[in-house]
From TrEMBL:
Pfam families: OsmC
PANTHER family the record matches: PROTEIN YHFA (PTHR34352)
Protein name: Putative redox protein
InterPro entries documented for this protein: KH_dom-like_a/b, OsmC/Ohr_fam, OsmC/Ohrsf
Lineage: Bacteria, Pseudomonadati, Pseudomonadota, Gammaproteobacteria, Pseudomonadales
Biased composition (Polar residues): 1-19
Amino acid sequence: MKATINWTGNASFKATSGSGHEIQMDGPPDHGGENLGPRPMEMLLMGLGGCSSFDVMSILKKSRQDVTACHAELEAERADAIPAVFTKIHLHFVVSGNRLKENLVKRAVSLSAEKYCSASIMLEKAGVELTHSYEIREA
C-alpha cells in the first residue's frame, strides 16, 4: 500500500492513494490554512470509521442480513498536551434494515473491534481507549 502527500501551499496538502484517489487536506485559518479540506487527524478518525464500517457491513452481508443503511458516528477526545494524540474514541453504529437480528449486529460490531479492523486494533495497541455501541432501526 502506498500514498503520496504533496504540499499545495500554506497549510494545504493533497494526498493521493496508491489506487489513484485524491483528497485535499488543510489546516484551520489560525494555523495558516484556508479550510479547504479535512485536517490530518480528522482523516485518521474517518479512516477508522471507514475501516470498521467496511467490516461490519461485510460481516452482516455474510450473515444474510437485509441491511438497507448503515452509518457510524465517531466521537474522539484528544490529549491537551502536544502531541495531541487521541485518548478516547467512541464508535456508534446505526444499522437499518428489515428484520435484523440483534445478536448478529452485535457480533458484527464486536468482530470488527476485536478481530478485523486493523485501524481499531492499531489504535488500541497505541493506548487509545476505544468503545463501540450500536442501534438497530427497522427500514
